[in-house]
Fold:
Amino acid sequence: MAIYTKEEAKMILEKALSFSKADACEINLSGSNSGNIRYARNTVSTAGYRSTQSLVVQSSFGKKVGTATIDEFDDASLEKVVRRAEELAQLSPENPEFMPPLGPQEYDEAITYKEATANVSPEYRAEVANSSIVPAAAKDVTAAGFLDDSAQFSAMINSNGLFAYNKSTDVDFTVTMRTNDGTGSGWVTRDYNDISKFDADEASKTAIDKAVLSKEARAIEPGKYTVILEPAASVGLLRNMFRSFDARSADEGRSFMSAADGGNKLGQKIVDERVNIWSDPLHPDAPTSTWNGAGQPLKKTSWIENGVVKNLAYSRYWAEQKGVNPVPFPSNGIMAGGDESLEDMIKGTKKGILVTRFWYIRSVDPQTLLYTGLTRDGTFYIENGQIKFPVKNFRFNESPIIMLNNLESLGQQVRVNGNLIPYMKIRDFTFTSLSDAV
Amino acid sequence: MKRRDFVQYAGMGAGAMMMPSLLLGNDIPAEALLEPGMDTVLKKKMADVALNTAKSMGATYADARIGRYLNQYVFTREDKVQNVVNTESFGIGIRVIANGTWGFSSTNDVTEDGIKKATQHAVAIAKANSKIQKEPVVLAPVESYGEVSWKTPIKKDFKEVPISEKVDLLLSANGAAMENGANFVNSALFMVNEQKYFASTDGSYIDQDVHRIWPTFNVTAIDRQAGKFKSRQAFSAPMGMGYEYMDGLESEKLSGPEGIKLYNRSYDIVEDATMAAKQAKQKLTAKSVEAGKYDLVLEPNHLGLTIHESVGHPLELDRVLGYEANYAGTSFATMDKWESKNFNYGSDIVNIVADKTQVGSLGAVGYDDEGVKTKKWDLIRNGTLVNYQAIRDQVHMIDQNESHGCCYAQSWEDVQFQRMPNVSLEPGKEKYSLQDMIKDVDKGIYILGRGSYSIDQQRYNFQFGGTLFYEIKDGEIVGMLDDVAYQSNTQEFWNSCAKICDKDDYRLFGSFFDGKGQPSQVSAVSHGSSTSRFNGINVINTGRTI
Structure:
């Protein structure tokens, strides 16, 4: 399937829009090609390829809205899908929260597409698997990994004159390395828009080293510890925190961001003043589309500045209710780092735990953003500035808000799941029990 | 539908109105759900195109799944309809073995040309990957069933029930919640029909019509003065039933303490929403639990999730063998424990069965997604681990020669693999009710409904919350508790199982969204149990001040 160019996409969208007889019409067109390989037990297990395309028409009469979808783009199909959306709209109950389509918008040029990623072949994927399996086997380690690459485009048009287009590529890689005696496990995650930045040998080696180093972990008492969180560990908790940045839930009184006086926490200091978090679709290391599915432009936006809540996300409906400008949800999360290296963080730790990642993170109390989960794939005890030995995994019960209030220091930023997150040293992180899991 | 999309759809998370309908199939009008789709004669012809193409290219095995997946979802909040969605997804998935290696490809172009191309792609992938294959696929034999069919035994097809009736029911439930003190309520109704046609080079042509339904809501009560909010989710279960589940039959209701109503094979959403609003308000002032050891009395709609996480997952053979090591994880229930024939998984009253045939359950089908007739088998008998869950390419690794029939793919476009069947705790044999159980507890907590759940990657250490918690003192419920979660180790927990109520208390818990695999796929699964008591479990207090 082709990844349509801006012109090709526009032609299809304009044709579809020409069939509209509704008060308003908004059409989204998207397509993707994606391939993957999965391996385990030092051999390939499954592999697949998928190609999809879809056109979604949303027609409205007043506040009555209907949506219809199709995956064929000849004129007859386009007319059929528009008619169907209109029929559905006429039959629908009114949606009092419906907002009419936006007018024309200005978008920045995105930097999300890299041809090399779009050209990944099945042979390349098999080579990546092999670059995990061969060195693993040589070290008495078993590799299980997954590589997923994709190229996609999305475009949108509406009856108020808006047109938007973006194309992007992504590659995601994870590998778990387990020692064959079953006592050690290591893991890495890597993701890029540009596959030429991906070094499968380096990633696999890092995971193998961690597996070997984490063998025969010792049990130490759970409790409050200073922790050094690798970016892949803290990203899960930070992402969960981001979900509470919705102004409506906050204003309705059912979010961590609700203020006791009936408003929200906009403008309040909620974490350490060294915490700065923003989103930026044009960041060269973690770019995203410069518009969202509703056609709103995405710009660099500050969410926490010097520990203070700088913005909450306002949908167009809620912004209108509150008489403020809409603020779209962020498309990525970027947290400012510091200049301390991981080595220095370890050197400066009298007694602490180095955490590779957290696993199975679940909300315990949305009121306080309390989460539980476990460490996994490489947890190490630090004493007097040195890594002493691997330790058994812990269960934690902790809130990212408490965590970011207990910030000791910040290190280098790393891209994780499309975000940029720094290494962090945190004091008094709460581990509540031990796990025998490796 | 993926779990995250559900969260968005249900308005229970951010961006409720951002509809990622691309992930659900094509939107269609409700009446189009009633259209019959491709007939079985044509399906057989199309499937044969795939099988013959695969064989001609040197494949030693092939199967084809032609799927038409119909979904209808209704979303409301308070007095508003947020959305009504009808979707259809149609296509074919082709799986082959060539050079001893699996290959898979799928297409929505269900024509001879489209199927041939997809099959060629599947064979090419198999051949490319065979170069680094170290464990050639070994398939357990399966009977050739010829042309057969199976249908979920439903009384009311959701597709024939007008949308207005469904909308009215949800809005009535919302209204009842608001009248009884709720500040907010989101409700939703999910209805699924999988029309699946399976054919393989082993000579089976299987036509199945599978139905599932899930009504749910989330009621929130707020105390702005205290800056607190509490929620209570529905006590419904997703079921492998038709729309008759919504009938609210009195005969399918059970009465618990404190005026609690519980539902078996029929659900009264208006009554439940009424109770939910009162209980959510009550939670705002409930006593914070004192951490310590308690005897836990776990209600089936809660215990089901504990069974799912601590028994269902660790006994999946692919996890045990390491195929899921990079994602869901492996398992503490290693082969040596099973081979010893004396691994003490639980106390001797613990009997846990896997079952793909249980009527009304989410996992019930006639044949699995690789054409194996479904069955029921023991996993844990008298507390001892006796078997795993395995499919055709796995059973030889546990010295068995018959697949357990629990292979599943979430749609035609995803490859099928081993998925959890219904895994259920058998009821106690002697007459014993919930009331009897509460009377026998000196210091305990009665826990209802699902809450927070987290377990490690080998399924040793877990922490579970719940929806409602009641303190039991000297054989009586003395009030509601809050901030409760329990932490335990799987083997210790099941060995602390001291008592199980009888079959009259047996009910199904279910989930539409059991996730596994890369790319991740969801699967719907039920877990049956009767209220059970676990002695001396560690309870923590989850209250925090920020």
Residues 245 and 266 of chain B are 5 Å apart (CA to CA).
